[in-house]
Amino acid sequence: MALDKYQSMRDFEKTAEPSGAADPERSEFERNGTPRFTIQEHHATALHWDFRLERDGVLVSWAVPRGLPPDPRVNHLAVHTEDHPLSYFDYEGEIPKGEYGGGKVILWDTGTYTEEKWSDREVMVVLHGERAKGRHVLFKTGGKNWMIHRMDPAEDPTRELVPDDARPLQPVEMAALPDEGDWRYAIAWKGTRVAVAVDGGRCVARDAGGDDVTKKWPELGLFGRAVGALPVVFTGVLVRPKPKALATFFLEDVVWLDGHPTDPLPFSTRRGLLEDLELEGESWRPSPLYDDGAVLLEAARAQDLPGVLAFRWDAPLEAPRVVPSRG
């Protein structure tokens, strides 16, 4: 009976999700007093994380659009959904398009939990996972909507919240390429310079004046899904080659990452952090860097591009230099 709703919403001839028909009444873990939790990153119509607690032979489930909050200063929405079968615990795969929950499901974390309180309106647990740890409480706010709150302090006491006012530094124009120091060079694309803050897979883009331009660039929705749960702030340029064409986000730098500003770090280290994220998709990629600025400037002139950006390789965050291709 507990899985009737789950099973009625799916066609198991079309989806590879487990039906739960052959599941035991209780898992070995629950019988031994160590019930499990699982968190699955779900790339459905809207990116979210499915948080599931094993109890009474099913996985009691919530969809959490921004993932579990890593900091007690913020609460995240958690939408109560239908109970799932125990065999869904480690499910990964592609739910077919057009089916309920269509999209990719990725296992994000698993572990056990300790129950401290469980009622119709409040669930308090301590998570023992690899990525999700500590005391959390879910509390009902109305209908299917709950909130999830981290009760323990952040694991990192120096952790900061994602800045909501990040903006890019405007390049400083120079008449010629720098002739001293260690520099790297990139094309100065004709587009909109932005800082893009990603939190729980959702993007906010601001231009150099601080204006929110997110809605002008719908391609950022897919970019946020690619970044996933990691809180991070990028700077770069959004380029649309012609009206109604697909824009490309050329990523130049990471200026804030997972709770900490990176601006004191040299550009070489920040660029390494960007490369480690391995973000390259249909409409986003790191802007290529070159050692030889003179050759790149000639190429920019030949292709009628605006110019070349120069980044000081060993410097903390500072405005890049720009040398126009037409003096």
- Unreliably modeled segments: none
Mean pLDDT: 96
| Order of the strands making up the biggest sheet | 1-2-3-4-9-8-7-6
Portion in helices: 10-25%
The 3D shape can be described as: elongated
Number of helices: 5
Give, in order, the helices and strands: HHEEEEEEEEEEEEEHEEEHEHEE
Measured distance between first and last alpha carbons? 75 Å
Helix- and strand-based class? Answer: mainly beta
What is the C-alpha radius of gyration, as a whole number of Å?
24 Å
Q: What's the number of structural domains?
A: 2
Q: Helix and strand layout, with pairings?
A:
Blueprint: H1 4-8, H2 28-31, E1 36-43, E2 47-55, E3 58-64, E4 75-84, E5 93-95, E6 103-118, E7 122-129, E8 133-142, E9 145-150, E10 172-173, E11 183-188, E12 192-199, E13 202-207, H3 220-227, E14 232-239, E15 248-257, E16 260-261, H4 267-276, E17 284-286, H5 293-302, E18 307-312, E19 321-324
Parallel strand pairs: 10-19, 15-17
Antiparallel strand pairs: 1-2, 1-6, 2-3, 3-4, 4-9, 5-6, 6-7, 7-8, 8-9, 11-18, 12-13, 12-14, 14-15, 15-16, 18-19
